[in-house]
Amino acid sequence: MALVTSGVPLCGIAALAQTRPYEGIGRTPTREEIRAWDVTTGPSGKELPPGRGTAKQGAAIFAVKCAMCHGPNLEGVDAAPGTGSFFRGWVLAAKGTPLWDTNPFPGAAKYYAYPTTLWNIVRRGMPLMQPGTLTDDEAYALVAFILFKADVVKEETVLDRETLPKVEMPNRHGFVPEKLEDVPDIEKRGCYKTYGVCP
């Protein structure tokens, strides 16, 4: 047995030695391709690009580019009958239950502390099979639609680089505060008045 196991690593080394170098595969990305992925913004939103969108515009885009995975009412869908799906459990605009509930189910729009997090995910990572193909206007409109369905913004709210960072997310104070000395103080962390859990 020792002889067999000691020979296994040598087989792997021999196989690697016979592997030809990868030539002619891949290329240097173009500036346009890099720019398509270089769209990350922080909580302040200062890196947000120009563009704008409303929930009404987002509803039409969602029906065409998003509903096949996230469901027509943002409820998620199963991948196939009888199978589970990542999208079923991560509802985008659920009214939600608090994270400390026995069965927490916040929904994406109620979980993130900053609206720019949702914008980043939509703009860079969606649609799943064609990530990075949404325009900035489409990303703003889709985020407006998701936040509207979660009762975070009004249907006529216009989201753009100025208004998006000002949206007060329901879980804004649900994470660790910026000052470490404030971590033990529940009042400084936020008391979740939405759910009636205040000291």
Fold and architecture overview:
The protein is mainly α. It has a single domain, classed as Orthogonal Bundle (Cytochrome Bc1 Complex, Chain D, domain 2), CATH 1.10.760. It contains nine helices and two strands, in the order ααβααααααβα. It has a two-stranded antiparallel ribbon. It is globular. The C terminus is likely disordered.
Q: How would you briefly describe this protein structure?
A:
The chain has 199 residues and is mostly helical.
| Whole-number total of structural domains | 1
The Rg value, from CA coordinates, equals 23 Å
SSE pattern, N- to C-terminal: HHEHHHHHHEH
Q: In the CATH hierarchy, what is the class?
A: Mainly Alpha
Main β-sheet description:
2 strands, antiparallel
CATH fold node name: Cytochrome Bc1 Complex, Chain D, domain 2
Poorly predicted residue ranges: 192-199
Query: In percent, how much strand structure appears in the residues?
Result: under 5%
- Secondary structure class reads mainly alpha
Return the CATH architecture.
Answer: Orthogonal Bundle
Quaternary state reads: single chain
Name some characteristics of this structure.
globular; Cytochrome Bc1 Complex, Chain D, domain 2; disordered C terminus; 199 residues; mainly alpha; 2% strand
Can you lay out the helices and strands and say which pair or pack?
Layout: H1 2-18, H2 31-37, E1 52-53, H3 55-65, H4 67-70, H5 86-89, H6 108-111, H7 115-125, H8 136-149, E2 159-160, H9 186-189
Antiparallel strand pairs: 1-2
